[in-house]
Design goal:
By secondary structure, the chain is mostly beta strands. 7% of the residues lie in helices and 42% in strands. The strands form two sheets. The chain has a six-stranded antiparallel beta sheet with strand order 1-2-3-10-5-8, with no helix packed on it. The protein has a six-stranded antiparallel beta sheet with strand order 7-6-9-4-11-12, with no helix packed on it. The chain is globular and about 60 Å long.
Length: 148
Amino acid sequence: MSERPSVDPSLASIHVKPDEMQWRTTTFEGVEMKPLYVDRASGVLTLLMRMAPGATLPDHEHVKLEQTYVLEGRLVDKAGPEVGLAVGPGEYVARPAGSRHAAWMPEGGLMVAMFQMPNKFFEPGGAVVDFLGRDWEAEWGAVSALRP
């Protein structure tokens, strides 16, 4: 029997058990997440997101491509070029870099969101923050400058 070749640890699979993870709050009331994959160097994130009934993701811009697969509930555009677009269970939506809108889940729900960079959220006072309420430029500006 031959020996198993040595394996580069950086090439190992990433195995996540979301049922064993705690939900993390975001800066938005009724919106929680479980980070499934985060690579700060590239800006790639995959999140399991849960929204309470009526919870809203306020005015935000998709810095790079965003993809969402809805598991439960309806994700509805509340503002932006596609007001009223509803994405239901088992449906998928991709939003290109630079698109901007607000979204909500009237009945609440669950989705998998995949980003190339965290969205920019625009607060009423003029601040631009990420989903955790941190200054977007301070947290992600350097990564953004590296990405085409």
